[in-house]
Structures are given as structure tokens and as C-alpha cells.
Amino acid sequence: MRHGEEVVTRAHETPTDGDLLAALDRLDGAVFSSTAFVIDDDTVMSIGGGEGAYVVFISSGGDTRIHTLIDPAKSEDHDQDLVAGGQSGSYPQFQCVDRSKAASALLYFHAHGAASPDLNWTSE
Fold first, then answer.
1. How far is residue 62's CA from residue 83's CA, in Å, rounded to a whole number?
2. pLDDT, tens digit only, all 124 positions of the chain
3. Which end of the chain has a smaller Cβ tally under 10 Å, C or N?
4. Quick one: which H or E segment has residue 122?
5. Phi and psi dihedrals of 115, rounded to 5?
6. How many CB atoms are located within 10 Å of the residue 33 CB?
């Protein structure tokens, strides 16, 4: 959470599924606009946005691989404005997913430390 220039963090060593979903639901695209879920120093899921539109990234191997959750039903040709990490940005619409997809990705990541094979991802 941001207070002006200050970033306030909250950590849970062994979060429950309820804790994870509460962190996702706390995102409002304003005061709370991003959160990170850390498996280890090299494996991190970042979720930004709020109010029904989220961008979800997994970095692994010390940022050598980045996986972005996508919704193939959405346009690759249009952008959507979204606040993540306190910054407003335009993201391709297909990278802005709904809560259901973000929650599914988060719960799988917490259980397995990887991108869910049941969801659609692009990789860099």
C-alpha cells in the first residue's frame, strides 16, 4: 500500500487460500494496486490492478523467464487503462484478466510454484 512516496508492506509466511484471496480482493486500483507472492528469491507472482481487471505476471529464474496471464477471448489490438504498482498504464486488453482467472492463477501458483497449465500464458 502507498502512503504518498512510502510503500507499506504486509507479509504472511504461510498464507491460507483465504489469505491469498483476501490479498487479491484488497486490490482496488487506487490505494492497493499491486501485490507480490514470493515462492523463493527466483520465483515471484505479481498481480496489479483491481475492481475486476488484473494483470498477472510470474517471474522465475531471477527474471530470466516472465509469464503473463492472458485472456484469449479479449482483443490484442486494444488497450485497457489500469493502475498497477501505483502507476497508471495502458495494457493490451488480453493481458487484463477478471478476478476468476487471477484467483485461479494465484491459488495454483501458491500450491505448485508455477503457472497453471489450465490457464493461458505468454512467455518472454
1. 25
2. 444 555 555 666 789 999 999 999 999 999 899 999 999 989 999 999 999 999 999 999 876 899 999 999 999 999 999 999 999 999 999 999 999 999 999 999 999 999 999 999 999 8
3. C
4. strand 120-123
5. -75, 135
6. 21
